[in-house]
Amino acid sequence: MSEHAATEHEQLLEEAKLAADQTYSPYSQFPVGAALLTENGRVIRGVNVENISYGLTNCAERSALFSAISQGFAPRSFKAIAVYAPKVPLISPCGACRQVLLELMAPDAVIICQGSDALATKVWTLKELLPGAFDSF
């Protein structure tokens, strides 16, 4: 990884950490923040928003992506997303988020994940996160 990419990843993680402070997670007490990087360098944050009926909860990754799309950003144009959860050593997107990431992120996008253990930070590609994915593109 280049020094520029490493710095970009660190900055995106910092945005995800700030987002994690804004979650609505009264039931699980499990805050997750995400920061999505657009092609033009804009960062769009997302947080998990819970509902007492857990199936109606929305994850931080999807919140960021849905927010970006609603703001007019084109699908498949996002360079990277950082996901942060302070209450586990390392976080990774759930299965539903992996499928949405696959459809809405750029094919070569990276997913940067971090929890309470910064040394465990992981950077994945979409193909690594969801091999053999259902993909119509």
Number of folding domains?
1
* CATH hierarchy, class: Alpha Beta
**Number of DSSP strand runs:** 5
Q: What's the architecture in CATH terms?
A: 3-Layer(aba) Sandwich
| Radius of gyration using CA atoms only | 14 Å
CATH topology: Cytidine Deaminase, domain 2
Shape: globular
How much helical structure, as a percent, in the residues? 25-40%
Whole-number average pLDDT? Answer: 93
GO biological process, one term: nucleobase-containing small molecule metabolic process
Domain CMP/dCMP-type deaminase: 7-137
Family: Belongs to the cytidine and deoxycytidylate deaminase family.
Cofactor: Zn(2+)
Describe the structure.
- Helices cover 31% and strands 23% of the residues.
- The chain contains 4 helices and 5 strands.
- It has a 5-stranded mixed β-sheet with strand order 2-1-3-4-5.
- The protein has one domain (1-127): Cytidine Deaminase, domain 2 (3-Layer(aba) Sandwich).
- It is α+β, with helices and mostly antiparallel strands.
